[in-house]
């Protein structure tokens, strides 16, 4: 069922309702107010990814400072903003994690401030799980939000979100009952926008139940929206009317509303609306190949989303977060003691792994000699620059200080970590079993509290039919870019976008790091060689202070 939820509008309204006004809740200084005002304006347009990325950096910085000061109000406010940005960028797991972090700061408080923010955060989790197709969990969090909500305008918003889930679950009678109740409550509040929106949703559900008043209510809502020229909610009306006439095989009228939806989507510059409108228009074409393609694409997207659910790191209530945090702390302490005890053995094994890897690569196929030479040079340089000098320094300390001090143990711990990283970068890859999952694991390895790695996949790419050596090259180049990012760029956001145009696969990498003047150094030369080996191209774009971008075409 293609039910369009006016997500961006609901999100904006909800933030306005549930986030306290800045000047009444927080004691900001004038400069902070100016900055907050600026970045809040940046995220007013949830379709502008560039502005969202800038705002993310600001709010993440402010959150870190607030955590250091242990100011709950600041931490919760900034973390909610971060969760909203992540949700708008499609990073639902990141948004989920941020919402849980905010809840953990409110876990021991029953104040009005905590209650109000919990309402918004539970609603946010409901929206996240809706996007992740976990409808039962979404309803669970909507219900938790409703238990705390007392203001009728808040209740209307949450119940509307819950009713939209009922539609997706095909509980149409229950959805109709909910919308009738919300509609009557909205009229008492004279909430014009909410009245028109709910009337449209009510009419849509009634049309699915083949009730004659369904079309009448949708058309009435459309006329009212046109009268006030409310563009965002207008799109939902056009989409609902398109589906109504499509379901009744009146493709001529459906096409009229489909085109209106497409024109409006371009006017408000919403990529998700534009995509939805184009899919709708294509779905009523008589070409069986188009219909089969749309059905297959939708199935692949759904299957992919369900598959990625296993990467979720926050499938728990906020009360469980504290227990997990304590458990992780104990685990880190145990790991540290283990590493201090067996550090020498670990360094030896890691170094041997690197040299074994280099030796095996050296004996690999004759035509790969040039690539093998570069790999050996790179690893040797890393060992010399990052390990050998530090080992020499530790040996000097041991000669001067016969007793092992804490500083020496810390130095050895650092050597072990760098050696382990070098080993991990050059392990043998099994790219044929599940390359998509291998890429996801690589990106997760570089995602941290400081760096957010966002991946935009392309379901139409069939990795299984790609030759092994090409997948190895792609993996190593992406790994090289991420390593350079971690070492040099100080980036907080990394975006990797995969797409397929005709028969070519395009991979776009971008980060918001320091950037640099582009020089044909060893790292860039090595990535170019890898891509040239598989008859592809790679281009770079970077300037100091403007981040780093790379485009790979294969």
UniProtKB/TrEMBL annotation:
Query: GO molecular function of the protein, one example?
Result: kinase activity
Keyword terms: Kinase, Membrane, TPR repeat, Transferase, Transmembrane, Transmembrane helix
Transmembrane region positions?
340-359
The protein's matches in PROSITE patterns, at most eight in alphabetical order, are given as: TPR
Keyword Lyase, does the record have it?
A: no
TPR repeats sit at 119-152
Protein name as it appears in the record: Signal transduction histidine kinase
- Organism per entry: Formosa algae
**Highest lineage ranks of the organism?**
Bacteria, Pseudomonadati, Bacteroidota, Flavobacteriia, Flavobacteriales
């Amino acid at each position: 069922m293609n039910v369009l939820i006016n997500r961006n509008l609901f999100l904006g309204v909800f933030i306005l309702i549930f986030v306290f006004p800045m000047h009444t809740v927080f004691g900001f200084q004038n400069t902070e107010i100016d900055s907050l005002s600026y970045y809040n304006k940046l995220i007013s347009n949830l379709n502008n990814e560039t502005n969202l990325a800038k705002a993310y950096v600001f709010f993440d910085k402010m959150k870190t400072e607030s955590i250091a000061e242990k100011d709950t109000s600041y931490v919760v406010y900034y973390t909610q903003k971060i969760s909203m940005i992540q949700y708008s960028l499609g990073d639902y797991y990141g948004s989920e994690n941020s919402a849980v972090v905010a809840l953990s700061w409110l876990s021991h408080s029953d104040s009005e401030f905590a209650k109000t923010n919990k309402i918004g955060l539970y609603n946010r989790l409901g929206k996240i799980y809706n996007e992740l197709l976990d409808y039962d969990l979404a309803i669970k969090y909507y219900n938790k939000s409703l238990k705390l909500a007392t203001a009728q305008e808040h209740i209307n918003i949450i119940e509307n979100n819950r009713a939209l889930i009922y539609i997706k679950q095909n509980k149409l009678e229950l959805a109709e009952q909910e919308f009738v109740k919300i509609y009557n409550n909205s009229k008492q509040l004279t909430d014009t926008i909410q009245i028109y929106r709910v009337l449209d949703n009510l009419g849509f559900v009634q049309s699915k139940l083949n009730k004659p008043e369904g079309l009448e209510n949708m058309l009435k809502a459309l006329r009212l929206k046109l009268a006030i020229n409310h563009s965002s909610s207008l799109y939902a009306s056009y989409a609902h009317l398109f589906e109504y006439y499509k379901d009744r095989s009146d493709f001529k009228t459906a096409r009229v509303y489909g085109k209106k939806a497409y024109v409006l989507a371009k006017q408000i510059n919403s990529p998700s609306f534009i995509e939805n409108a184009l899919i709708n228009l294509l779905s009523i074409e008589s070409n069986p190949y188009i219909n089969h393609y749309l059905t297959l694409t939708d199935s692949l997207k759904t299957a992919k989303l369900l598959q990625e659910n296993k990467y979720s790191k926050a499938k728990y209530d906020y009360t469980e977060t504290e227990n997990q945090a304590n458990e992780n702390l104990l685990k880190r302490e145990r790991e540290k003691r283990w590493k201090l005890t067996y550090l020498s053995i670990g360094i030896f094994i890691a170094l041997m792994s690197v040299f074994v890897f280099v030796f095996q690569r050296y004996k690999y196929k004759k035509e790969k000699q040039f690539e093998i030479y570069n790999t050996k040079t790179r690893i040797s340089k890393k060992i010399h620059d990052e390990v050998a000098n530090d080992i020499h320094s530790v040996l000097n300390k041991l000669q001067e200080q016969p007793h092992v001090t804490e500083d020496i143990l810390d130095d050895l711990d650092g050597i072990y970590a760098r050696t382990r990283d070098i080993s991990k970068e050059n392990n043998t890859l099994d790219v044929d079993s599940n390359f998509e999952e291998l890429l996801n694991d690589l990106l997760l390895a570089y995602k941290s509290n400081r760096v957010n790695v966002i991946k935009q996949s392309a379901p139409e790419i069939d990795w299984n039919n790609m030759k092994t050596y090409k997948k190895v090259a792609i993996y190593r180049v992406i790994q090289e870019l991420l390593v350079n990012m971690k070492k040099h760029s100080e980036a907080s956001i990394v975006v990797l976008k995969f797409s397929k145009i005709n028969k070519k696969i395009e991979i776009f990498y971008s980060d918001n790091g320091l950037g640099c003047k582009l020089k044909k150094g060893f790292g860039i030369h090595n990535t170019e060689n890898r891509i040239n080996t598989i008859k592809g191209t790679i281009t770079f774009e970077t300037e100091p202070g403007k981040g780093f971008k790379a485009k790979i075409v294969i």
